[in-house]
Amino acid sequence: MSAPQPISNLTQAFEKTGLSSSPRNTVSTSPTTSYMDQYKPSSKASKTLKPFSTGDVKILLLENVNQTALDIFGQQGYQVEFLKTSLPEEELIEKIKDVHAIGIRSKTRLTENVLKHAKHLVAIGCFCIGTNQVDLEFAAKSGIAVFNSPFSNSRSVAELTIAEIIALSRELGDRNMELHNGFWNKKSARCWEVRGKTLGIVGYGHIGSQLSVLAESLGMNVLYYDVTMIMSLGNSKQVGSLAELLNNSDFISLHVPETPDTKQMISTPQLAEMKDGAYLINNSRGTVVDLPALIDALKIGKLAGACIDVYPKEPRANGPHFNGDELLPFIDELKSLKNVILTPHIGGSTEEAQSAIGIEVGTVLSKYLNEGASVGAVNFPEVSLRPLDLDEQNVCRILYIHHNVPGVLKTVNQILSDYNIEKQFSDSRGDIAYLMADVSGVNSDDIKNLYTELEATSYNISTRLLY
Ligand SMILES: NC(=O)c1ccc[n+]([C@@H]2O[C@H](COP(=O)([O-])OP(=O)(O)OC[C@H]3O[C@@H](n4cnc5c(N)ncnc54)[C@H](O)[C@@H]3O)[C@@H](O)[C@H]2O)c1
Ligand SMILES: O=C(O)[C@H](O)COP(=O)(O)O
């Protein structure tokens, strides 16, 4: 595996990813005007247009995003800055000012306060499943599309959970620690087979449903609770309430996203509903479990053990004292408890998952940057047109992100009416709409005029022209 490049500008062929090539040699280049000035036109620096060139695209990659993504971006010729960790807010704000796309994982918080400084940003890639770390609504309102990888690490999380179910049941964590400390403690009391036991899954999505299949293959009975009615896999059964699940399960495993509804969904009353001697596993998000309540339930022996992979606050980087970040809340109390297995948010951390995520998110980000295709965006209308023929002269792709209000198409098509519209597609999501159109028969002055007129419309959020 080649070492990640700190800043690279590698212009190579594009065949490998199947993405279109991009540098164009048509109209109106301005050596003094950066690509950024025209790329995210909210910048007041200059309205001079310049043909799209992948070599001008700047991407910031944080949190040790996989090499597969670096390879894709390198093939595109983008300028990539790669960092292994996330960044404190002030540093993030400084860096995000300059880039067109940012790649993050679960740690980096892209809040309104950060995003309002991102004047050139057009896309965010979450190289993970969760997108709760991004202010999705503010991003959409700012014309920034957010992408993630909806299922590339779900198998890894499901497999880890199976390992944890058995580890809890056999007190493996404690036996391992004891022997590492020179203490032989051969025992069978309160150690169980998992066969015939009941697993209760909260959230039967990509991870929960895979877990259900794996657990049944071990001879477990599976119940699940989900806000949506979902067809069961195998012999698993959906139950009508969280309480019913908690009352009837020997193991509870949480696989819900972080939302206002899932915040502390497991707290004192829910722990009280669980069977005596049951186990709790949280591989979802740290906010889903009330940790002090869990600690109490473990201390009084209500629960026989727990696995925690995710925490309300997590460090930015690996290391003994978390590089000055506030220590994980309640970690000392958790550490002192029997049969509690603590892992550092590694549910999706396998070679297979990270490599697949790098390819998936790297590819969708490149397609959005190069072609405007927003398929897979989580906060944005999903629009796509077949790639523009870059060998053809006098064609231009219009990417027009606008407020979803009446009258837009009439106005836009009036602006386009002097040209041949080769193809056009638009869609909306909430307050935001996105129109893609390819027009032909345009010269450099036409392109400038089109841009100026579209950007001046009262509906405009962001206009990009690819030519
Ligand atoms: N530990 C890790 O490293 C790791 C890795 C991947 C994902 N995750 C977390 O796991 C979560 C689940 O992942 P997924 O891919 O299975 O997501 P998913 O969207 O496929 O499934 C989530 C399920 O939860 C259900 N749900 C939502 N709110 C609910 C509620 N209040 N009560 C009951 N059910 C509810 C949804 O209907 C859905 O079926 C992710 O959002 C992410 O936060 C953690
Ligand atoms: O949302 C996810 O996919 C998981 O929480 C994994 O996050 P990570 O990529 O930061 O490990």
Automatic annotation (TrEMBL):
Region Disordered: start-end pairs: 14-47
Record's keyword annotation contains Transcription: no
GO process terms (BP): L-serine biosynthetic process
An example Gene Ontology molecular-function term: phosphoglycerate dehydrogenase activity
Annotated catalysed reactions: (2R)-3-phosphoglycerate + NAD(+) = 3-phosphooxypyruvate + NADH + H(+); (R)-2-hydroxyglutarate + NAD(+) = 2-oxoglutarate + NADH + H(+)
Keywords (A to Z) from UniProt: Amino-acid biosynthesis, NAD, Oxidoreductase, Phosphoprotein, Serine biosynthesis
InterPro entries named among the record's database cross-references: ACT-like_dom_sf, ACT_dom, D-iso_2-hydroxyacid_DH_PdxB, D-isomer_2_OHA_DH_cat_dom, D-isomer_DH_CS, D-isomer_DH_CS1, D-isomer_DH_NAD-bd, NAD(P)-bd_dom_sf
Domain ACT: 397-467
EC number in record: 1.1.1.399, 1.1.1.95
Family per record: Belongs to the D-isomer specific 2-hydroxyacid dehydrogenase family.
Name of the featured protein: 2-oxoglutarate reductase
Source organism of this protein record: Pichia kluyveri
Taxonomic path: Eukaryota, Fungi, Dikarya, Ascomycota, Saccharomycotina
